[in-house]
């Protein structure tokens, strides 16, 4: 459904960054635009960026995260996605913003990434990978991240024990997608040689995000 065209997403996502993931609300009456900016700022703070570091954004969407990292730091950012629509949009946007010398976008599977990165971030892509590839994903992260690197993974999570996806969501919303429980993640992370140093649950932010999306979608229904 990422190939449906940008006009569909502009009907309900935030106008500034077009973030298709959970926002971060610091007050109940905050706008979606401000909440999504909060989310990006929150992630950037956790990444603890240093000048001239190489940053990889896995599943870069329409580039909001990559562009914001570049704006707030002197880092070199590479964004990857399997959506031709998104990559073409990002490359065009990078030139418009005169940031194409600092931010690069590639149509690429994370398993094919080469090189080393001091920081790796992935927002809203992990849900698409499938449980049988969790070990592959975290092993790849360990291989392409420097020894002193930081990886921040932002995913929808389930509060239930490991299980299958709800049938309606599997058929109509995200075919092939899976929402992991926390216990699904711990084992492959440890086996890959990575260390969990921070874990935050945004459960009281996603309901507000979905409400904002629904209100906008219904407003633009016609």
Q: What does this protein structure show overall?
A:
The protein is of the alpha/beta class. 39% of the residues lie in helices and 15% in strands. The chain has helices at residues 6-9, 32-47, 64-72, 84-96, 134-144, 167-173, 182-191, 203-219, and strands at residues 54-58, 76-81, 103-107, 117-123, 145-154. A five-stranded parallel sheet has the order 3-2-1-4-5, sandwiched between helices. Helix 3 (64-72) links the parallel strand 1 and strand 2. The mean pLDDT is 95.
Q: Numbering strands along the chain, what is their spatial order in the largest sheet?
A: 3-2-1-4-5
Q: Roughly how much helix do the residues carry, as a percent range?
A: 25-40%
SSE string, helix = H, strand = E?
HHEHEHEEHEHHH
List low-confidence stretches: none
**Oligomeric state, counting identical vs distinct chains:** single chain
- Which term fits the overall shape? globular
Count all strands and give the number: 5
Task: List the main descriptive attributes of the protein structure presented here.
222 residues; alpha/beta; 39% helix
How would you summarize what this structure contains?
With 222 residues, the chain is an alpha/beta fold.
Task: Give a topology summary.
Elements: H1 6-9, H2 32-47, E1 54-58, H3 64-72, E2 76-81, H4 84-96, E3 103-107, E4 117-123, H5 134-144, E5 145-154, H6 167-173, H7 182-191, H8 203-219
Parallel strand pairs: 1-2, 1-4, 2-3, 4-5
